[in-house]
Amino acid sequence: MVIRRAIVACSASIVLLLSACTFGSSSDEASTPAEPSPKPTVFEQKFSSDTRGEAATLSLSGKKTNKNFRVDNIGLSLESTVLADRRLDPEASNLDYLLNSLGSPALRFGGNELDRRLFWTSDHASPSKSDQVVVTPEDLKRLKKLVDVTGSTVTMGIPLGTYAPKQGVDMAVHTVDILGDSLVGLAIGNEPNGYKVKDVPNGAVRGNDWNKEKYVQQLEAYAKAIHAKRPDAPIIGPEVYDGAWMDAFAHSDVKKKSAISQHWYQLPECESEKVPGRGPEAQNLVDPLAKKSAQKNLGIGKDHADDAGLPLWLEETGPTSCPGTNDTSLTNASALWAADYTLYAAQLGVERMAMHSMLGACEGGAPMSLVCDPADHGTRSDTFQGRPHLAAMRLLVPSTGGTFTRTAVKGGGNMSAYTVRKNEGETLVTTVINANDAAKSGGNPVSFQMPKGFSVERASQIYGPSNEAKNATSVIPSNPLPDDIPYSGGEKSAEASASTSTGADELKIDIAASSVTVFIMTKT
What we know:
12 helices; alpha/beta; TIM Barrel; disordered N terminus; 524 residues; 2 domains; eight-stranded parallel beta barrel; Immunoglobulin-like
């Protein structure tokens, strides 16, 4: 655990010192940001036009709530067949660098391929189907090398598509033994409520008689056999979006339950072009309806988790799981959404989150992935790059380990803000998501009402020329504020800790539209 904490601190420093770069391009800039020349020494924004947006007042409190932003609130979910990819080895690719830039992100292995294509063997057995992917203990050892470098915790799926408890238990035992305390959960099956669905890759895996009762019966059989060999193995479930199946898992006789695991995607209505709505349109990611949908659907998981006395883990999520939506996932809106959604979910009580991703091609691969391979589709390279929402997730690392405080936003149009308290109240980190479109206004004048005695030490930002701009999300590295702080709303702040007669400290600053900005404040 000491090693993991050291890695977290180091990774946070990486994020704070990120050079200016653009995410989502076809080059490898995102994986190896170039040093700007000259290197910036102050935080300087780039406004698309005049800051004529609605003025906003942000009132920050130093009093903590009972909700935390954990290291595991930033994470990746990968298909279980990725375990066979040699590029998980830190010596075989730059994946460890990208993961470290996210702190010590949660890693989850599952997905539809778990029950349909993964073939586990520890004795060199051969799969019965040609499209199956063989996974062995050697692959788990390679994963262990990765998590030793990143400090990540892991949840691992165990196949249940075909009832094969001997094989499943063998995989579980090897996973426990190899990953050690990096393993925080075994998920038996992936989305068992969808086992009868035919219109998914590789189709249905169970017959029409499959139901919650049979799931519980087989879940209990697997868990009992696993615990006979490894009594402390942590079990999570049910890896679904359906509350009834969450109850089925929670009320089962499975021992060592660690969490209720939920799946949910922001824009699931693949045929819809309605705006605002829940179809895969970029505007829908930043419309206020998105937050209302998240509150409703994650609330289902949180209610069931609370009833069971377990934490809620969002083990598979993302902007949309619809095919053919690369354009939506590559927009700057996806970055704004990722920052807002991640913080909002944590504030609702989600304690672990994993954005579903892949290690495939940037062109033609899964659209919602945080990372991708710039090599031509059908080929591979050892240099991954980040998509726009990876840039947003990087900005959130300084907030990890913090406890949310109250942050009130008045005015500002489509603007949200979150604050966490760290270092026994000596540090506040505020993230401002300005989802007003830079295509219409350069930004908004914002007045920060900070608790007395605080001043802004550093700020960093991601931004784009508009919400819908593709492959154009750029990073402004963390630096102190300039002496002349831009503000179009009236009287400027003399400095970042300008005193007011209210007993609070105030910062007046223009914030670029289509951006996410992180302000780190310390008590002076």
